[in-house]
Amino acid sequence: MSNKGKYALITGASEGIGYELAKLFAADEFNLVIVSRDQQQLSNVAAELRQHNIEVITITKDLFERQAAFDLYDEVKAKGITVDILVNNAGQGAYGLFKDNDIQRELGIIDLNIASLVIVTKLFLKDMVARNKGRILQLASIASQTPGPWQAVYHGTKAFVLSFSEAIREELKDTNITVTALQPGATDTDFFNKADMQDSRIVQDKSSLSDPADVAKDGYEALMAGKDKVVSGFKNKAMMAMSNVTPDTTLAHMMNEQQKPADK
């Protein structure tokens, strides 16, 4: 079945997992709406993706601001675009002990990872419901199922994303709309720089980090198969299986040991 004429919208598409997902959609002939805060990066990515003879529309929005999420929807609608697939990929973390971290930074993380995701999902989902057709991919994380010392707010936001996604999937079970949660582990992207997390033990061993292209492929295939969720990578699947039978207090301690600064 041809995907020509269909549109996928991807937030956080200028780098990392979002960029790798955009390449997969482009290769399958989807037109793209790619969203990021960095117009120059978006322009560079768009030029690359257009080599697949697809339409690529760039929209610069800072989704740390809730209003930007509403504005994103309005801009897409003003262009007369029907979004067939929505990918909520944009997200960031803040590293450090909760008692020490800047509250405004953490509230920004909550607005980006939760509030803007909820706004964008609701607005585009209403249109999908009207057509009784669509797919949604939400970037959760294996962090969604484990308490996260040194990243308490980030782990909390991803727990929200997973729970929220599973709930609305159930609400939509009698429709032709699917909701899929992608759960990667630590991935070799710019996430750790943006979170000021370079001192963390988990980042020191680069060989332990997942390849964003592999994560994107797992997410893309699960989305297209209509699956409810997918944990990316064998190691992460094993970790999640273990977490299901391990007390949360033990999981929190294990995560503390993984995420605390390497010199502690």
UniProtKB/TrEMBL annotation:
Pfam assignment, any one: adh_short
Keyword DNA-binding applies: no
Protein name, entry field: SDR family oxidoreductase
Native organism: Mucilaginibacter defluvii
Family: Belongs to the short-chain dehydrogenases/reductases (SDR) family.
Regions that span the bilayer: none
Keyword NADP: no
Keyword terms: Oxidoreductase
Alphabetized InterPro entries for the sequence: NAD(P)-bd_dom_sf, SDR_fam
Chain segments annotated as coiled-coil in the UniProt record: none
